[in-house]
Design brief:
CATH architecture of the largest domain: 2-Layer Sandwich
Order of helices and strands: EEEHHEEHHE
Oligomer: single chain
Distance between the termini: 36 Å
Strand content: 25-35%
Largest sheet: 3 strands, antiparallel
CATH topology of the largest domain: GMP Synthetase, Chain A, domain 3
Structural class: alpha+beta
Number of helices: 4
Strand order of the largest sheet: 1-2-3
Number of domains: 2
Radius of gyration: 17 Å
CATH superfamily of the largest domain: K homology (KH) domain
Length: 136
Amino acid sequence: MARNATAVWNGSGKEGSGHITTASSVLNKTQYSFKSRFEEGVGTNPEELVAAAHAGCFTMKLTFVLGEAGFTADELETKCEITFVNGEITRSHLILKAKVPGITQEQFDTATADAKANCPISKLLKTEITLEATLA
């Protein structure tokens, strides 16, 4: 299986702009620019997309890990904060709020650690990955 996306950029790095399109068309000429990446401009940016990918990947991996242990979550909500400093992603911080009936704290901690270490995006990232997990 292969997935793809296309980025098009016009102009210089600071004054130019671009757009990103995914094969699924979920992103369809979604704009990005210097301002959306380094300031508070309209549009997306690569770091926001990495955060979305990591949050989604970790959460889905956790559902499989929980399922293998005999649990089904009522809800898993993961926020991912990407830290981008001096042109480098230095940290990906996952913040999970979970409702998993019948699971102990120890089982939950084991499952979240497994998902953090083994989701494909965690394996891809060459940076510090931290996790703050709350079981409700």
